[in-house]
Amino acid sequence: MPTTIAIAGLTGKFAQCIASSLEAYPDVFIRGYCRSPEKLPHSLLLARNIEVIKGEFDDKVAARSFVRGADVVICCYFGSPEVMVQGQKVLVDACEELNVPRYIASDFAVDYTNIPANAIFPKDSARIIREYLASKKTVAGVHILTGGLMETFWSEFFGCWDRTTRSLSFWGTGEETWDLTTYETAAAYTAAVALDKSAVGVLRFRGDRKTIIEIKDSFDKVYTAPLNLVNLGSIEDLNATVLDSFRRNPRDVMSWAPNLKPS
Fold first, then answer.
1. pLDDT score, position 258
2. Distance from C-alpha of 147 to C-alpha of 114, rounded to nearest angstrom
3. Residue 98 phi, psi dihedral angles, 5° rounding
């Protein structure tokens, strides 16, 4: 009998990477959930092993149809706190009601289990949903921690890489380590976990671990052109900057979240 893997937020890039990774496994049926199926690639809509359920993040009826009969649910939501918390709770409740054995939360982030409870963390939804899953009797929580996603690290959003000046900005000494994983590698880990019925709890993966200095060395060798490093200050300076931005507008995550502290 095919394994049914339900993926919420299928229009997202990471969700589609997971679906692509699952194609390597035989006897897998994918059920996607999203509010705008028309945004999905045509090739995905035509795939024989994929069914798509349309629904909003807070649609309890659609959520039940989505999770019914699934062997595992993977959440790939990325959005407002309401989507990340209330949207996931709707899915978790549906899994509990319909006896879905496992729920892979929309974590795919740094190891937040090592972050103090009172510290500022832009993805606090991860901690909330982990506690919520722990309160359930039937559905088991799965939390995949991949470190930073490589594509995000090099994106304009993250605020480190400036392609116009070929420079990488950082806080600290440059010797702090970063756990980084590409979308495709993180998706491959997630697909393997989804098919392993014994995989529950917190699971830690990483594609590589590098310091800013090591990233510069690799960049210089590959591109035969120097990567310019820009030191923005100490880790203490970073903490003060983030705290100040947070106090001025705690709901504007984009104003303080990109400058994350390396481990």
1. 57
2. 12
3. -105, 15
pLDDT, tens digit, 9 for 90 and up, residues 148-194 = 999 999 988 788 999 999 999 999 999 999 999 999 999 999 999 99
Closest CA to 181 of 213, 228, 146, 231: 146
Q: Which residues contact 21 (CB under 8 A, 6 or more apart)?
A: 184, 187, 188, 190, 191
pLDDT at 260 (0 to 100): 46
The yes-or-no verdict on residue 261 having pLDDT over 50 is no
Judge whether 193 and 203 are in contact, CB under 8 Å: yes
- Going by C-alpha positions, the residue among 188, 83, 89 that lies closest to residue 130 is 89
Host H or E run for residue 94: helix 88-97
Domain limits, the chain: 3-256
Q: What is the DSSP letter of 41?
A: -
Span 8-44, pLDDT tens digits: 999 999 999 999 999 889 899 999 999 999 999 988 8
Q: Residue 132 is encoded by which pair of tokens?
A: 């919520």
Please tell me the distance from the alpha carbon of residue 263 to that of residue 260, in angstroms, as a whole number. 9
The CATH code belonging to domain 3-256 is 3.40.50.720
Nearest-angstrom CA–CA distance, 110 and 206:
10
